[in-house]
Design brief:
Blueprint: H1 4-7, H2 12-15, H3 25-31, E1 36-41, H4 43-48, H5 50-59, E2 62-65, H6 71-74, H7 84-95, E3 99-106, H8 113-122, H9 126-135, E4 143-150, H10 166-171, H11 175-186, E5 191-196, H12 204-222, E6 229-232, E7 235-237, H13 245-257, E8 261-270, H14 278-297, E9 302-307, H15 321-325, H16 353-363
Parallel strand pairs: 1-2, 1-9, 2-3, 3-4, 4-5, 5-6, 6-8, 7-8, 8-9
Helix pairs in contact: 9-11, 12-13, 13-14, 14-16
Amino acid sequence: MVTAGALGTVLAGALGTTRSAAASGLSAVASGRGWVFGSAVRLAQLQAEPALRAAVLRECAVFTPEIDLKWDAIEPDPGRWSLGNIDGLVGFASEHGKTVRGHTLLWHRSTPAWAEQRLREHRDWRLISRHFASVMPRYGDAITQWDVVNEPIETGHRMDGLRRNVFLEAFGPDYIRRALVEARTVAPRARLMLNEYSLEYDNREERDRRYLFLKLIEGLKRSGTPLDGIGLQGHLDLRKGTVATSSIAGFLKELADMGLEIVVTELDVKEADYTATPDTRDRMVADEVRRYLDTVLAQRGVSGVLTWGLSDRQSWLEVLEEDYRRFPGAWTKGDGPGLNRGLPYDAGMHRKPMYRAIEAAFHGR
């Protein structure tokens, strides 16, 4: 087992060894109310960008490895391990008094091609067992909360709502229960979670996803499956209107009534109107975040909020060609709207209204 202490020296040269002072920024505000705040990060970006590194250390108590712990990142070829980045990130977190979430063990979009092929050809659960046993015990007490299965629901195809992926194909609907049992076996003290997206709006797809996800969770709990919590990704989208506050509240109450911990794991905002001024765009983003967090944080069982990055410069959300097509003639001189403005810091590492919205939601004012 590689402990947090042993990993703490990995980045002594690259990222510095000065242990962070007491909690500050958003993590301090959150902890005052019994929550945690954090962000997804990439080791390479922390190494390359001192301003980002300083903001992450100032604002966050928890890091989610955006890429570095996914199966295709750590074992791109069978038996060829690539653990330097995640070892480094866990060591950096430990050195600065932070924690790391285990994201993610099984996800259809991060399964290496060689593993997909073997699962389809041989349907051998030992490949899953080997993956879990190789990763979870390695980090021991350094990672205590794991997204065991990411995005298990896909609406519109099966009565049970399960996503058509290689795990379902190889092992049938029971693969989720088996994965949680496997995780408990190799990491008996870890908090085991399912992580899901598109649960926030009242369109048909998201109403169906909430219903199907609840049915899955209820079945797992009835069977005694070890499931400790639920991750709500929280990728908000202004193109869909405003978040369905009453539906979210009812959904979270049902989760809390089952004794589950609830974490917002990937909060950010996709914009709708790129022709508005930056101030107006920032206000619309902040208003949506505040509506969402005021609803979520009022519910029992919620333990924290993590954003999917801190700065717009590192966001996975891009202004796409389809966005340009929605505004014909809006940009005629080769310019454009700039970056999607859906994270707490702008590209210059300045706090935006979204930051203040998160802060105010944590304060409850």
